[in-house]
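Appendix B, example 12.
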Amino acid sequence: MRIETKLFLYMVPFFALVATVYGVLVEWQEPVGFLGLYLTAGLAGMIGFYIGFTGKRVGLRPEDRLDAEIHEGSGEQGHFSPWSWWPLVLGIACATSFLGMAIGWWILYIGAGLAAVALVGWVYEYSRGDHAH
């Protein structure tokens, strides 16, 4: 995970520099822009630190080694459910919530309730019904 770590850690000074230049150009009168950029630099730093820490603990992956063979990266990459409808329901709930922030707060509450149901349904998808283990 060396490449990913460097990628995120190199973004920290970039976003900090851009935030400072932006702050100077707007004479520090528009706090949302430069503050958002400083927070982006902090987030990139946290992600880079986490990926670096995890990479040291897990060890080198085949993608990180120059002498790796293709077959070393084969095998199971994770468990994905291709027939799940819950991500679609969660996306609709998030869209409803954002619509509620634009139109009326009462719509936001409907979207938040739907998002809670969709998230619980997605998490416990394999714990009930035909797919229960």
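The CA atoms of residues 8 and 48 lie 5 Å apart. The helical segments are 2-25, 31-58, 86-102, 105-123.
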